[in-house]
TrEMBL record:
Similarity comment text for this entry: Belongs to the G-protein coupled receptor 1 family.
GO biological process, any: cellular response to lipid
CDD domains: 7tmA_OR51-like (cd15222)
Principal location: membrane
Organism listed in the record: Bison bison bison (North American plains bison)
InterPro entries according to UniProt: GPCR_Rhodpsn, GPCR_Rhodpsn_7TM, Olfact_rcpt, OR51/52/56-like
PANTHER family named among the record's database cross-references: OLFACTORY RECEPTOR, OLFACTORY RECEPTOR 56B1-RELATED
A cellular component term, taken from the record's GO annotations: plasma membrane
Record's function text: Putative odorant or sperm cell receptor.
Domain G-protein coupled receptors family 1 profile: 43-294
Protein name from the UniProt record: Olfactory receptor
Length: 319
């Protein structure tokens, strides 16, 4: 009986939601979403190409930046197909197993992005507080291990959370609140005791994001302490300026994330538009803005972008 129930759940179909009340404008609404996804893909692909092809950028800071670009795309791209299927009126249906895979990628890469930002904070700490040991501490081998550990640390704890969904009966409405699947949205439809999933999910968020944000905060305490020891004001400004892009990236991830969590926990009966708006900001803003911020604030990345756009002019000016 339990096996039959499980196989029945695996074949369940959920129905995604676009922008409630604006269904007749979905085709027009898809245009800004197309532009945002295009900007995110082009921007992050450009960062990856520049770091990969320019030997001068084969340094820890830029390796971590490449990791950030990968996690940005990993977090946003799984939502793209289902979003446009809804907005272009192709289909609102999504199968249970597809939904689980989508949730796995969204939640795994959102946790991974937080871990990468922690690694980038540690990179800035070593660069500013221990500049002479920078190359010997952050070796390519260690950076590779950090990247693998960040991915495993984010992916493995998510598996038990999603595996339990296969044993939940979904006897309520199968209509989800978003144009993609989120764990907190799916368990809302389950007709079973979801206490474990709720508590486990809350503990997971608290441990992973809490530890990462604490690590970032402590890193910047040490960085600030070290910067204040620099005698010249120009030296202080230069040291802090190397952290500006990272601070912006942290705010871009954590502010929408906290806002989305608050809306899901304490504003359940608010307008659906607020939930949808916050969810799209959380998944789309970091991939779009991070490449822009690092291109503007980081000289080497900016030069790489200019070389791609105007190769003849840049090469002649260098000569």
């Amino acid at each position: 009986m339990e096996t039959a129930n499980s196989s029945n759940i695996l074949s369940s179909t959920f129905y995604l939601t676009g922008i409630p009340g604006y269904e007749q404008f979905h085709h027009w609404i898809s245009i800004p979403f197309c532009l945002l996804y295009l900007l995110g893909i082009v921007g992050n692909s450009t960062i990856l190409h520049i770091v990969w092809t320019d030997p001068r950028l084969h340094e820890p800071m830029y390796y971590f930046l490449a990791m950030l670009s990968i996690t940005d795309m990993g977090m946003s791209l799984p939502t793209m197909i289902s979003l446009f299927r809804v907005l272009w009126s192709i289909s609102r249906e999504i199968q249970f197993n597809t939904c689980v895979v989508q949730m796995f990628f969204i939640h795994t890469f959102s946790f991974t992005e937080s871990s990468v930002l922690l690694a980038m904070a540690l990179d800035r700490y070593v660069a500013i507080c221990h500049p002479l040991q920078y190359a010997t501490i952050l070796t390519p081998t260690l950076i590779t291990k950090i990247g693998i550990a960040a991915l495993l640390r984010s992916a493995l704890p998510v598996i038990p959370l999603l595996a339990r969904l296969a044993f939940f009966p979904f006897c309520h409405s199968h209509t989800l609140s978003h144009s993609y699947c989120l764990h907190q949205d799916v368990i809302r439809l389950a007709c079973a005791d979801t206490k474990f999933n709720v508590i486990y999910g809350l503990v997971l968020i608290t441990l992973l994001w809490g530890m990462d944000s604490l690590g970032i905060f402590v890193s910047y305490v040490f960085i600030l302490h070290s910067v204040l020891k620099i005698s010249s004001q120009e030296g202080r400004f230069k040291a802090l300026n190397t952290c500006a892009s990272h601070i912006c990236a942290v705010l871009i991830l954590y502010v929408p994330m906290i806002g989305l969590s608050i809306v899901h926990r304490f504003a359940k009966h608010s307008s659906p538009l607020i939930h949808i708006f916050m969810a799209h900001i959380y998944l789309l803003v970091p991939p779009v803005l991070n490449p822009v911020i690092y291109s503007v604030k980081t000289k080497q990345i900016r030069q790489g972008v200019l070389c791609l756009l105007f190769p003849l002019k840049i090469s002649s000016s260098v000569m």
